[in-house]
Amino acid sequence: MANPSDEFRLVSPRVNHEGRLPRQYTGEGQGAKKNISPPLEWYNLPEGTKSLALVVEDIDAPEPDGPIVPWTHWVVVNIPPTVKGLPEGFSGKEEELGGEYSGIKEGHNDWKVPGWRGPVLPHHGHRFVFKLYALDDELHFGHKVTKQKVLEAIEGHVVGEAVLMAKF
């Protein structure tokens, strides 16, 4: 049996798996302490990983008068396998950070803007799923990246998936 510590995994130093999403990562924080993208770290990339893609969704988001449809909060692609995580507040700063971060591209969330956008909810208790895909290829996108384009592009290229879940 595989040793669980060898598993491909996604963690956050600020968010426990199935724990609460702290306010500064939501749209309900105070002043500059809101809508900050949370720090993420990953371990044990699967063999053959050439790039990583991240999709963050509220899986309990209801349509106003309809079914539950996941709401996309963040899409990040072309994360090189040499990068071991994204620092707190990374969103919108990939070029400023430079180096191996400079090729990372943030896609559009369901507010139709690129980058991280934290939740503002009428009632709490929603589950946020951070899903990191290890891919055997680099993705090439045009100008606008969306969750849909990512999920289509990664088909047949996923060598591993790691999930972190937070509640809000």
What are its keywords?
mainly beta, six-stranded mixed sheet, 168 residues, 2 helices, three-stranded antiparallel sheet, 9 strands, Phosphatidylethanolamine-binding Protein
Record field, number of beta strands: 9
Q: What's the architecture in CATH terms?
A: Alpha-Beta Complex
What kind of sheet is the major sheet?
Answer: 6 strands, mixed
CATH class: Alpha Beta
CATH topology: Phosphatidylethanolamine-binding Protein
Estimate what percentage of residues fall within beta strands.
25-35%
Helices, by number, come to 2
Q: Order of strands across the widest beta sheet? A: 2-9-8-4-5-7
Radius of gyration, in Å, reads 15 Å
Order of helices and strands: EEEEEEHEEHE
CATH superfamily: PEBP-like
Give the mean pLDDT. 92
> Roughly what percent helix?
under 10%
The low-confidence parts are: none
- Give the structural class: mainly beta
Approximate shape: globular
Number of domains: 1
Distance between the amino and carboxyl termini? 35 Å
InterPro entries: PEBP, PEBP-like_sf, YbhB_YbcL/LppC-like
Organism: Forsythia ovata
Region (Disordered): 1-40
Protein name: PEBP (Phosphatidylethanolamine-binding protein) family protein
